[in-house]
Write a structure and sequence with these properties.
The chain has helices at 3-7, 18-28, 71-74, 77-80, 90-95, 107-117, 127-137, 148-155, 160-177, 195-206, 208-227; strands spanning 12-15, 38-45, 52-60, 65-70, 101-103, 124-126. It is of the alpha/beta class. The chain has a six-stranded mixed beta sheet with strand order 1-4-3-2-5-6, sandwiched between helices.
């Protein structure tokens, strides 16, 4: 079994047509809110107001699925296509204060969504801030913001074999897009996605629910509300 197969057992769906977006919105409607059902990450080229969004990754825990929404192909349709109710869109979900959504370090992602699609996020729980707040509750040394890889490897309760597989998938993905390693960020816009990039994308959101549970249990309800 390859490292990618070991690290990404969760089912995934690639969404690149308006009809598939409608099915996606139907799946994301009326999900439980505690704990959050949606864990999201964006990939792109110079992800910010100055760059582009290629893919929106959405892990829907109750559906046991990671959706890869092809923003590069769909453009605004990715956010404005309605579900079966004729009203709910991904844009309305992202803007809803009553629908909690977890990101890790939402800053550049929020900047890109607002600049390119006019989406002002609400209802966000930032796992990076939750981790930072956790260290204050235990008086841990250090005031730096941790990166996602560190948090997953140290706080997602993975066994040794799973950790090795996760790191291998990350390294394979980085070699595809990191110019310093001979890659190019254009791989996020190539279709179909390579197996290495697909596995890299999926595992970035796959373990976010574990991080939320770990940090929330250590923060408590009142403290968590202060840092999200």
């Amino acid at each position: 079994m390859s490292a990618a197969q070991q690290s990404t057992p969760i089912p995934s769906r690639f969404v690149d047509t308006a009809r598939q977006v409608t099915a996606l919105i139907n799946d994301l409607t009326n999900l439980p809110s505690l704990p959050p059902s949606l864990y999201i990450n964006l990939e792109g080229i110079d992800l910010s107001r100055h760059g582009t969004i290629s893919i929106s990754l959405l892990s829907a825990v109750p559906k046991n699925c990671v959706y890869l929404l092809d923003v590069h192909t769909l453009g605004a349709q990715a956010f404005q296509t309605t579900g079966a109710d004729g009203q709910t869109t991904l844009q309305s979900i992202l803007k809803s204060a009553s629908t909690p959504k977890a990101f890790f370090d939402v800053r550049q992602q929020s900047d890109a969504l607002y600049a390119h699609f006019g989406i002002r996020l609400d209802g966000i729980e930032d796992l990076q801030l939750m981790e930072f707040g956790r260290r204050f509750t235990i008086r841990s040394v250090g005031n730096d913001l941790r990166v996602l890889a560190y948090c997953i490897l140290n706080h997602a309760a993975m066994g040794r074999a799973r950790r090795r597989a996760w790191e291998a998938v990350k390294e394979n993905g980085c070699r595809c897009f990191d110019p310093a390693l001979g890659g190019t960020y254009q791989v996020f816009n190539s279709r179909p996605l390579t197996a290495d990039i697909l596995a890299y994308c999926i595992q970035k959101v796959q373990f976010m629910p574990r991080l939320w549970g770990f940090y929330r249990s250590r923060l408590g309800v009142s403290r968590a509300a202060e840092v999200t």
